[in-house]
Design goal:
Elements (H helix, E strand, L loop, with lengths): L1 H25 L11 E2 L6 E2 L14 H11 L11 H14 L9 H10 L6 H17 L2 H11 L1 E3 L2 E2 L1 H9 L8 H10 L3 H4 L1 H5 L4 H16 L5 H10 L59
Helix pairs in contact: 2-8, 2-11, 4-5, 4-6, 8-11, 11-12
Length: 295
């Protein structure tokens, strides 16, 4: 009799958990809503092809696309929405530090979070994010996912989407951005409000300069820019800002002078960037956008 009660309790508990899980996933937004116009949950950005803030992928410089992919999600073109290896690394670090210490969200996961979820950091929200990422990869091409991501992601306080970001930082169209400018935009993504202080002060922090150069190096390794473009971009990085003026204490040839104001180098955190370059990341898979994807 006791065994029957235990079994009844056990299967009853399993049934309740199953019902709860199903209810949670049933309550999530339909990822296919991205086929139309939608206002994102996270930042209330209106994502629509007819919006004046929207821009198609073929109008975005490869320098931006390459920088963002190589710094945020180097395996973007080969994973199914989630990078299992990155998740393992992050989980180990989170467990060791007893906190959410390292991000491992792919571009697809970040799009799911931006469009459908809140800023909450919890295990449940991460599960929801992963589920939605798989669903997005099921219904949409990599080109569509990347395009929507670049049109909703935050680049500064109140600046969302790459079109507005290029105007805000460079007074340029996204198609005109140089490799070092693309690397700067990618550098901002983990924490735009914090990392944009280099733009506000018109001088790169040591961490910003180091990270931008690292992103450029990854772009070269991933064949997003040539060796010649890499060398030229690296030489231009210390000349920030790149609008024809020079930063305080920096000469016209990019050499810091003694009067340069020291800046806080503690603003950065390498764990915010996906710098674990893997051999399979070097050559994009068949999932990389083709001209047909832009139509």
């Amino acid at each position: 009799m006791k065994l029957s009660l235990v079994l009844a309790y056990f299967f009853g508990l399993i049934s309740l958990v199953t019902i709860a899980v199903v209810a949670i996933f049933m309550s999530l937004p339909d990822p296919q809503s991205l086929k139309g116009c939608i206002t994102t949950v996270l930042y209330h950005v209106y994502l629509c092809e007819t919006s004046p803030h929207y821009i198609s992928l073929d109008q975005i410089s490869p320098n931006i696309i390459g920088a963002v992919v190589m710094s945020e999600d180097a395996s973007f073109y080969s994973h199914p929405g989630v990078d299992i290896e990155e998740m393992k690394i992050s989980l180990r670090k989170d467990l060791n530090e007893h906190r959410f210490a390292r991000g491992a969200s792919t571009i697809t996961q970040q799009l799911a979070k931006n469009v459908f979820l809140s800023k909450e950091k919890s295990l449940l929200r991460k599960v929801e994010e992963i589920y939605l990422a798989f669903q997005l990869e099921k219904y949409f091409t990599k080109a569509k996912i990347l395009t929507d991501y670049l049109n909703v992601v935050e680049f500064a306080d109140g600046v969302y989407g790459v079109k507005d970001a290029c105007d805000h930082y460079f007074k340029k169209l996204p198609s005109e951005v140089t490799p070092e400018e693309g690397a700067f935009l990618a550098f901002l993504l983990p924490n735009p409000k914090k990392y944009s202080q280099s733009f506000t002060r018109r001088q790169l922090t040591p961490f910003a300069e180091k990270t931008i150069k690292t992103i450029l190096h990854k772009m070269q390794l991933g064949h997003k820019i040539t060796s010649e473009e890499y060398v030229a971009a690296i030489a231009r990085v210390p000349m920030f800002p790149w609008d024809g003026t020079t930063a305080p204490g920096v000469s016209a040839d990019g050499v810091p002078g003694e009067s340069a104001t020291p800046m806080d180098d503690s603003v950065g955190d390498e764990d915010n960037f996906n710098f674990d370059f893997k051999p399979e990341d070097e050559v994009p898979s068949e999932g990389e956008p083709t001209p047909q994807d832009f139509k």
